[in-house]
Design goal:
The chain is α/β, with parallel strands linked by helices. It has 5 domains: about 90 residues, no CATH class; about 70 residues, Beta-grasp domain (Ubiquitin-like (UB roll)); about 180 residues, 2-Layer Sandwich (Nucleotidyltransferase, domain 5); about 110 residues, Nucleotidyltransferase, domain 5 (2-Layer Sandwich); about 90 residues, no CATH class. Helices cover about 30% and strands about 20% of the residues. The chain has 16 helices and 24 strands. The strands form 6 sheets. It has a 6-stranded mixed sheet with strand order 9-8-7-10-12-11. A 6-stranded mixed sheet has the order 23-22-13-14-15-24, covered by helices on one side. A hairpin with a 3-residue loop joins β7 and β8.
Length: about 650
């Protein structure tokens, strides 16, 4: 290995005098990469059945592929040695105790191959990349105990490449942690003046007038909505402003907890950095898939903008998030800004230092935080909706999710709050709850004979209920009398064994425990809206427009949401399904650098309300747990 690295450096140094002469010494006559080390110019790295193609065209100074991070040479050598040793030891252990003939052990990754279930892995199935995390739903007792490489996982999560099957006849049900939910389209598309920081002058690609690359055929950028439950990315052509593709997948950090507080606690433990690693690996997988689908290379991505709440964003940028989990619940970045040590809460880092596979000089911009848990995703929504405190009309945004953000603006004020709603409406805590995947029941209505009418995403067999379906179900139960306003199920109306059957033939039901979790999630949003309206000095009649954004917002029935007290009782004709405003706002910041400056000025005007500091917060929260329309708690004019 030492000789290989010496040869690399030697060949690179030979090109210093004239880097444009010759071709990469590890590129064959058929343009196949023959190098035995990782090279940034190599394509098709993950598909082991395809020979790696050398993307170096003979005119590029290929030293950059190796010199991008020279400090990593020794780490790379040590890692290769460790992986080989671990593989050899694993083979020895499996051979130990075998009498006569060798037997091949099977793991969950092998089982996934047989089932044609696609799992990600970029480490050769040695357990290093942590991309093949699966959820074992049945048969966990038929698996060998966790290996040392799985120590960072808890509950029913396993690395497929490490989870050895002890009983091959056992029924084992598992699914990948990375799943693709229904893409939430933005419903407020609007023209954006193109003013990117990346431009082209003939065959040169520039950032702010500085040449950073030669033109390779495309100039792309990524806008990312880094949600607690779902991550979405929009690939843009920075020369035209056109969106090329939108991809989304479930946030793989779920093994560290379903909400931000649990993830803060996890990252403060012995496995610090794992949450950053898995989300970067997942995004790299999506980037590779986009490259293959649209026939471009990752080196043609020159800029990335990320919108996320304070915890998600700082984890992404390798920051310390422990301060966000304790009073005053502020990121170290925000604290430094308040102390005058920073001029902004926005972040900028090189993609290569974060581990993202893009152009070596690609910059990643984290949109500014507003205050405490109200982060860059809420800031992006301000851009997407053109919310301004200087407008005469008062508007409200409710961005529903695991961490719900609420914004009130107009008449010279901009007020924000965050509500720890939890994951109950996004697939967590409720037994048959799930995110918006194919098979999720998205609408529920009362049937003529006392049962339920329902519709699934994709029209297939039902697997569970997503957020919009749960809201409908609660409203139907309440309206029919099968559930009272306290959430207690009636003994006479369809309740058996403590549950109400929703789809009896598929054993999908809802229990009192499920309803309790949903009541608490609803109460957090209810209390946030109520307190913010009171502090602002308005009632639901004064709100000219209520924007609903978030993972399942585009499919929520407004009447049902108001009936159970999830949304303020604003007239339906004044409600707007805003779509994924965080992703749209991130896209605007990517396409127009002037919008970033505007956003910086806007977030400085925000008033942050700490809901729990209200003297009657607990009383309002308890009231919000009731399944009834939200009451105005008093509009105290400032």
């Amino acid at each position: 290995m030492t000789e290989i690295f010496a040869e690399i450096l030697g060949n690179a140094q030979d090109k210093v005098m004239d880097p444009a002469v010759g071709r990469c010494p590890y590129r064959s006559a058929k343009d196949i990469c023959t190098a035995k080390f990782g090279c940034a110019n190599r394509e098709n790295l993950k598909d082991m059945s395809v020979e790696p193609i050398c993307a170096h065209d003979g005119t590029l100074d290929f030293r950059g592929a190796w010199e991008t991070r020279p400090e990593s040479y020794q780490k790379t050598k040590e890692k290769v040695v460790q992986v080989r040793q671990r593989a050899q030891e694993g083979r020895k252990d499996r051979r130990a105790g075998m009498e006569g003939e060798r037997t091949k052990t099977e793991n969950l990754f092998d089982r996934a191959d047989v089932q044609c279930l696609r799992l990600a892995s970029s480490c050769g199935r040695y357990g290093d990349c942590h991309e093949c995390i699966v959820i074992v739903n049945q048969g966990a007792e038929a698996l060998a105990p966790r290996t040392e490489l799985e120590a960072f996982l808890g509950e029913n999560y396993r690395l497929a490449c490490q989870a050895e099957i002890l009983n091959p006849d056992a029924e084992i049900a598992f699914e990948p942690l990375l799943r693709a939910p229904r893409i939430l389209e933005t419903s407020l598309e609007k023209p954006i003046d193109l003013a990117t920081t990346i431009t082209r002058d003939g065959r040169k690609v520039l950032r702010g007038g500085e040449v950073i690359d030669k033109y390779r055929g495309h100039i792309f950028g990524l806008a990312i909505d880094l949600g607690t439950t779902t991550i979405a990315a929009n690939l843009f052509d920075l020369e035209t402003g056109n969106s090329i593709a939108i991809a989304s997948f479930e946030n793989p950090q779920r093994f560290g907890g379903s909400d931000v507080m649990h993830r803060i606690s996890y990252d403060g433990g012995p496995h610090q950095g794992e949450l950053h690693k898995v989300v970067i690996n997942a995004l790299n997988g999506e980037i590779e898939a986009l490259c293959q689908r649209y026939e471009f290379t990752r080196r043609e991505i020159y800029e990335i903008v990320v919108a996320g709440n304070s915890t998600m964003r700082d984890l992404f940028f390798k920051g310390d998030v422990q301060a966000i989990g304790q009073r005053p619940y502020k990121s170290p970045i925000e604290l430094a800004f308040l102390d005058g040590k920073r001029d902004s809460t926005a972040l900028v880092a090189e993609a290569r230092k974060l581990g993202l596979r893009a152009h070596p000089k690609c910059l990643v911009h984290g949109l500014p935080l507003i205050a405490s848990h109200v982060g860059g995703d809420a800031a992006a929504s301000l851009l997407a909706l053109d919310i301004s405190p200087d407008d005469d009309d008062v508007v409200m945004l409710v961005d529903m999710g695991t961490n719900t953000e609420i914004i009130l603006a107009g008449q010279g004020r901009l007020m924000v709050a965050s509500c720890p709603a939890g994951p109950a409406f996004e697939g967590g805590l409720v037994r048959f709850g799930m995110a918006s995947y194919d098979g999720a029941i998205e609408t529920v209505a009362q049937g003529p004979t006392g049962g339920f009418h329902w519709r699934t995403i994709g029209g297939g067999e039902p697997l569970g209920l997503c957020g919009s379906g749960l809201i409908d179900l609660l409203a139907v139960l309440r309206h029919s009398g099968a559930m009272n306003e306290k959430g207690a199920l009636s003994r006479e109306r369809g309740k058996r064994n403590g549950v109400v059957a929703v789809v009896p033939e598929h054993d999908i039901n809802i229990s009192g425990k499920d309803i309790s979790h949903l009541a608490q999630a609803k109460a957090a949003s209810n209390a946030g809206q109520s307190i913010l309206m009171r502090r602002f000095g308005v009632t639901d009649r004064d709100i000219k427009r209520l924007y609903l954004a978030g993972g399942f917002a585009s499919h929520v029935d407004f009447d049902n949401a108001v009936a159970i007290g999830l949304l303020a009782a604003v007239d339906k004709d004044r409600m707007v399904r805003a779509g994924n405003t965080a992703l749209q706002g991130a896209g605007e910041a990517l396409l127009n650098h002037d919008r970033r400056a505007h956003l910086e000025a806007l977030v400085r005007r925000a008033e942050h309300v700490e809901l729990e500091s209200e003297a009657d917060f607990f009383d309002i929260f308890v009231e919000g747990c009731l399944f009834k329309p939200m009451a105005n708690i008093g509009a105290n004019k400032p």
